[in-house]
Please model this.
Amino acid sequence: NPITLDGNATLQVGITDGGEPGTNDSLAVMVWDKSGAVWYSSKWTGTLTAKQVLGGGNLQVRNATASLAAAAPATDGTESVTSGAPTVYAVSRVSPNPFLDRAQFRLDLPEASRVSIVIYDVQGRRVADLLRGNMEAGRYDHTWSGRDGSGGRVARGIYFLAIDATPLSGEKTFSVRRKLILVR
Model:
């Protein structure tokens, strides 16, 4: 799950449960700054952080977004990779919407892509960058906690979620815009 470090960096950990007994489980770790520059990658390929098969142990990935959301602090851009490879680009509806303290959505990437997830206000001003960087194919759950890029709480009102994903192969960009209503 990505977490904000000092308000200026993002840590992303991606895991894949390859089933029992765990011999095909894999892991990727990446840290990038607010501008999207890579600070650390556990296995950089030149365009993205590739997952590495673990030499031992047994990871277990469960689709338990609701229980994780209840137990985890509200951090912007929280992502958890869930099992199952998507075949098309897709974004779920934002839930709940209107929201009090956090809104969640899922992004499906059928292939490795350069991804940008940004929150804008009704004036078109950039409020927060939830994600900027390259991501492997997979399903990702994201959360916005109603905070700006500096970590401050934003005022109640209407905001817009802008998601752009461009396959690393250079094909056409997938773009989605969603309206969010923060009611605090």
